[in-house]
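Appendix C: a fully annotated inverse folding record. The material below is reproduced so that readers can follow the format used throughout the book. The structure is listed first as tokens, followed by the designed sequence.
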């Protein structure tokens, strides 16, 4: 009886195995291809200012304009845009007949970066999608520092603004970087100075050019955040009055590729 049962089990196993093999041999496979597509177009929406030390547009910041409590001005329109440029405040200083170099106040912020300071900076975005290059310049279009309220000495004759220690940066690490002019002086008569340029194939995305860094200095007995890379030189021979002197800068971005 046991032998008959065992024989039946063996026979069943062989039959099932043959059926499985036959089924596998009889299977048919069909292959079909499909596609994945994504397309991009130029982006003409404004780009908010970014942290120059961590230039990620996903984390916008709120820079303070030290010259205008209602500022800063909004960025320019279009897919090739100037998003931000620091205004420069060279502090409150004692009158002297000695040659002096005054340092710009460091860039301060509201919002999440409140209490932090950075080097002064300019930010541009190229969202055209053509990677065709661009050129950024700046000019002292307001003429020499001038006071509207001075009684006699209305102009700071011989004064000179200098930018130094320029560093371009972006979160677009794989994009070829533009070239920043390491240091340049401004012409008080309004001639443009080259700041940064991108050749054809360079400078796509959002880029900052930041000058120097913030450091704490003691001036007139107070600790202030200054930037030694952006300076105003004033000759001691230039007479000054106890008032405010101002000028203005104009930053210009063109679609002409760098050389």
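Designed amino acids, in order:
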């Amino acid at each position: 009886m046991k032998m008959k049962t065992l024989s039946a089990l063996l026979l069943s196993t062989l039959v099932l195995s043959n059926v499985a093999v036959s089924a596998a041999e009889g299977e048919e496979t069909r292959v079909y291809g499909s596609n994945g597509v994504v397309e991009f177009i130029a982006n003409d929406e404004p780009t908010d200012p970014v942290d120059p030390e961590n230039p990620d547009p996903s984390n916008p910041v709120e820079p303070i304009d030290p010259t205008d409590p209602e500022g800063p001005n909004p960025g320019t329109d279009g897919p090739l845009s100037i998003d931000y440029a620091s205004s420069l405040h060279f502090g409150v200083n004692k009158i002297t007949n000695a040659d002096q170099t005054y340092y710009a106040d460091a860039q301060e912020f509201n919002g999440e970066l409140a209490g932090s300071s950075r080097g002064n900076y300019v930010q541009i975005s190229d969202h055209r999608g053509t990677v065709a290059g661009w050129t950024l310049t700046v000019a002292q279009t307001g003429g020499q520092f001038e006071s509207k309220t001075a009684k006699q000495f209305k102009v700071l004759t011989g004064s000179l603004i200098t930018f130094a220690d320029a560093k371009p940066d972006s979160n677009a690490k794989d994009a070829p970087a533009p070239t920043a002019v390491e240091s340049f002086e401004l012409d008080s008569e309004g001639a443009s100075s080259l700041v940064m340029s991108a050749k054809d194939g360079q400078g796509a995305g959002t880029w900052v050019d930041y000058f120097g860094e913030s450091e704490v200095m003691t001036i007139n007995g107070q600790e202030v955040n200054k930037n030694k890379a952006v300076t105003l030189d004033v000759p001691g021979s230039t007479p000054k009055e106890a008032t405010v002197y101002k000028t203005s800068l104009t930053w210009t971005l063109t679609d002409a590729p760098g050389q």
